Amino acid sequence: MKTYAGIGSRDLVWEGVDQAPIIVEKMTPYMEVLREFMLYSGGASGADVLFEMLHYPGEVKIFLPYKGFNKSKSKYYNITQEAKDLAKHYHPAPQYLNDNNINFLARDCYQVLGYDLKSPIDFIICWTPNELQGGTSQALRIAKDYDIPYFNLFHDDAHIKLGKYLENVL
């Protein structure tokens, strides 16, 4: 089964405007096709939960930094040392990370490389105003290293590029 990550900012308000309805509008034309893919996400409030809701009733794997994060019942919460090492490798300042930070960033590794860390996803859909900050940026750094395309819905034309990409892969 093909896979994609639906991830992004926890805060969906940009310049005083709630972006959730705009993201839903941009995603709606593609949701029937996307439900044929497995969604990987991280269970965080904001974009992660929104992508999970949009993907329903499709198949999902929600990777958590710890059991019960954000009240999720996902069984994907065991962070391995390999994932922690990858998290540090991809972070621009690993010396400043504490164990909690590392667990959150390791979760991003699973979102992009699968629970075995050897099965890269096909693409990422995200919403983030800052691709250089936070967990989404960690996922995008990994994606770039693995040549995994991503579509940041923060940019006005990203949903159009996503539609063209989906036409080519199906």
Order of helices and strands: EEEHHEHEHHEHEH
Helix tally equals 7
Q: Return residue spans where pLDDT drops below 50 for at least 5 consecutive residues.
A: none
- Beta percentage is 5-15%
Helix amount: 40-55%
Describe it:
41% of the residues lie in helices and 15% in strands. The protein has 170 residues and is of the alpha/beta class. It has one domain: Rossmann fold, CATH 3.40.50. A 5-stranded parallel sheet has the order 5-4-1-6-7, with helices on both faces. Strand 2 and strand 3 form a beta hairpin. Helix 4 packs across helix 5 and helix 5 packs across helix 6. The protein is globular.
What are the salient characteristics of this protein?
170 residues, alpha/beta, Rossmann fold, five-stranded parallel sheet, 7 strands
